[in-house]
Amino acid sequence: MADAARTPSWHLELRSNDAIVATRESGVPGMPWTVVAQRGGRGMRVSAYEPGDDTSVEGDPVGEIAGNPRDMGRQFRDILAELEDRGGSQQ
Predict the structure, then answer these.
(1) Does residue 91 belong to any structural domain of this protein?
(2) Could you tell me the sign of the dihedral formed by the alpha carbons of 90, 34, 1, 70, in that order?
(3) Which pTM was predicted?
């Protein structure tokens, strides 16, 4: 899934608890925009965090992704692009 979600604007990493974390620089060192896809429901719940938010608690829900890993990666990439287009999660 992570391979299909790759985008030059975001850094992706896998967490051990079945979550994928995307980060993007906010302009403030050490305080990135963060988007987390975590197992839940029939697929993965996607939450967004503003710079400085605690990512160990639930963030703002921005969608859910489901399907095979390639489709889920594409859906995650689309969510990341939509957040950028809305003006959120931009540098």
Answers:
(1) no
(2) negative
(3) 0.85
